[in-house]
Amino acid sequence: MTSTSHVWRVFSLLVIVLLVAFATQRLLRPAGYGEYGNYRAGAPFDIMDQPMVYQGKRTCAECHAPTCEKHAKDVHHGVECEDCHGPGGIHAQFYRTKDSSISTAEAAMPKEYKLEGCLYCHRKLAARPRDFPQVNPAAHYEFLHVSEPETKCIECHSPHEPLFLLARAEDARIHPVIYECTACHDKTPEGNYREVARHPVVFVCADCHPAVVKDFAERQHASLRCTACHLFHRENDTAGRIYKNGNQRFCLLCHEKRPFKAEGAIPMIVGAEHLKGMAEATSKDGEALAKDPKACLQCHLEFIHDPEILGRRGAQKDG
């Protein structure tokens, strides 16, 4: 008969290993494990006892209310302050309690400009939704005729008010999803997409605003896409919010004369000087005109749209 002793030796060794492992697991199991689930019951309380690292926008508003009010109104309203400025726990503790164990340098939060800080969210990537604001820095600067490639984004866009909206972003009107040919095609195709067999049904601006789109094609801003000024942010598969913005500061994003912009490329002005001159030419109150957010549209609307066409469509709330 063939001997089986070697099999029993291996089997016995496995049993011993399993028994030792089971006993060790029981001995090392922390108190409370399994009481509420597959974790230690005291773990949530240990986490709660840790010092708070992030504070949230409410804490920031205690000392920085004016800035937070601007931030809450514009398109960055959903971005936490600490996403750009870093954790605020030590900063808040120092200024709330005057904790002598924390130095002023340790309490300081980073606020210096970094290009990658903006491009982390806004760099043009194929993986990002096409209607999310994103740029290729070189192409964006070429479009704006910026002659200095080292120009900072914040020279034009305030991080707290990047678009200078007239009304809260959350109050902008709901609008059907906007599709553009260049979302799928490298360049705008000629003709009407409806003439293409089995082409998906899409919504374009001319479907609902044919008169405005036709008129705009003859205007000085015709080279721009509608969404260059009427910015659209998708909220779901069928709708989003469109920012029908007419703030003079929004217009100056392109038309304000700045040292880093090429001369003669597009009409540019020094905002304060231009408004002062217009006030004198039109016998208007200069101070009131400077404070009027729609000052540009008082004179220049006809360079963008036919006022009569817009009038027949009825006044709409600015977003």
Short description:
This protein is mostly helical and 319 residues long. Helices cover 41% and strands 4% of the residues.
Break the fold down into its secondary structure elements and pairings.
Elements (H helix, E strand, L loop, with lengths): L4 H24 L14 H7 L7 H5 L3 H9 L7 H5 L3 H9 L6 H4 L7 H8 L14 H7 L30 E3 L28 H4 L1 H7 L9 H4 E5 L4 E6 L3 H8 L15 H12 L3 H6 L3 H6 L6 H7 L6
Antiparallel strand pairs: 1-3, 2-3
Overall tally of structural domains: 2
Averaging pLDDT over every residue, what do you get? Answer: 87
Helix content: 40-55%
Order of helices and strands: HHHHHHHHHEHHHEEHHHHH
Task: Give a structural overview.
It is a single chain. By secondary structure, this protein is mainly alpha-helical. It has two domains: 50-112, no CATH class; 157-319, no CATH class. It has 17 helices and three strands. The protein has a three-stranded antiparallel sheet. It starts with a helix and ends in a 6-residue tail after the last helix. Mean pLDDT is 87; it is low at 312-319.
